[in-house]
Automatic annotation (TrEMBL):
Task performed by this protein: Significantly diminishes the chaperonin TCP1 complex ATPase activity, thus negatively impacts protein folding, including that of actin or tubulin.
Keyword Cytoplasm recorded: yes
Major subcellular site: cytoplasm
Name of the protein described by the UniProt record: Thioredoxin domain-containing protein 9
Organism: Bos indicus x Bos taurus (Hybrid cattle)
Highest taxon of the lineage: Eukaryota
Residue ranges occupied by any Thioredoxin domain in the UniProt entry: 52-180
Localization terms from the record: Cytoplasm, Cytoskeleton, Microtubule organizing center, Centrosome; Midbody; Nucleus
Amino acid sequence: MEANASVDMFSKVLENQLLQTTKLVEEHLDSEIQKLDQMDEDELERLKEKRLEALKKAQQQKQEWLSKGHGEYREIPSERDFFQEVKESKKVVCHFYRDSTFRCKILDRHLVILSKKHLETKFLKLNVEKAPFLCERLRIKVIPTLALVKDGKTQDFVVGFSDLGNTDDFTTETLEWRLGCSDILNYR
């Protein structure tokens, strides 16, 4: 009996909170609609111009990224190329892999998808057998490893699949979330 009363009370409190929140959101939306209704032609034109300028800027940024090799997942042949690629772009994900490692192929599938979706980040892969100095310098001991580089500095690593649920059948969204946690891509 007492448990039912407690549940009823909790439900009423929750319902009341939800109602108050809904009212606040509705009031905010109403005020925004009222602002838009009260705009004159000049204000609407300025708003339109601002939006158009923002779209142009975004398109220029996209073209710049594409010219720097963003939008594709590709292999780089050597350590020297790694340093050059990292200098060119603000955000880079580099997959340190070995051909004979099955899990590297799993990671490749996901990185191909993410490279096309997140143009703000450059996606690369480097064979560890061609990069012994770099692997030693970055202390890469487990394959696959993703080095997450921001502004030319290695920020974070995704080592193996431990951050991805410790399973071979993690989703692309799980990897996307993990990279977003390191702010190496814009995760929404």
